[in-house]
Specification:
This protein is an alpha+beta fold. The chain contains six helices and 13 strands. α1 runs parallel beside α6, α3 packs across α4 and α5 runs antiparallel to α6.
Amino acid sequence: MEPIYSGKVREIYDISDKYLVIVTTDRISAFDNILPMPIKGKGIVLNKLSNFWFNKTQSIVMNHIIDDRVENMPLFFQNEYFRERTVMVEKLRMLPFEFVVRGYMFGSMWKAYDNGESFCGIRLPNHYGLAQKLEQPILTPAIKHDIGHDEYVSMDEVESELGTEMTKQITETCFRLYKMCSEYAISKGLIIADAKFEFGQNRQGELVLADEIFTPDSSRYWDAGSYKVGVSPNSFDKQFLRDWLLNNKLNGVFQYDKVPENVLIQTEKLYNECLDRLISITEC
């Protein structure tokens, strides 16, 4: 069986007119390139975390998960490689936007803010420092592109495309998801600085949460104990790997095939620590 789509991390298989199977691999990307070496067990970490959060947020919004047991999937997926990294999901009509709730001044928003620019049509007061918590979280949408960077847009553009009611529902859902899950995370010593969401519509036209949620690949997790405004926080994602690549360019070129083993191992440890902090053994 061949996937119908192979992305930077996930592979998607079409198994019926109603369902897809999504496999989360151990691949890791940086600066829009997939590294030649994987991060051991990364796909399992991402899948466990996403499933944990999907289950925890069912009271807020429906999600696309049908089953995470390979025993209930086609025979092709019933082997050890696919276990714990594979889900069967509902086929949806995916919306053309992704939505990022930002609770802290960081990343692309910080770059725009530091340059005195608005971001996704939003202009914030001029008293924020790097990584500072916002007075209120904001929602920043982007148009999804398969190749290259996503394109940031304003909520007015989303409303023009999706309509007022759908836009309102998405906005309220995103903020509720962020509030619930960031409060849970802080109780575990983690700050969720931002979180990306993708949605689709089922056959009844209902809004359904899809893709992945609150994983280290789709959210920024910071260590609450060492967090300080004005300092780039310690994070539980691939930033450690990205920093090595940035600091070890050769003639301005990223050395994707030269990443040392200790950097890969440390990146693996960061992903696993995020999982261990958030989920107890009994919840796995």
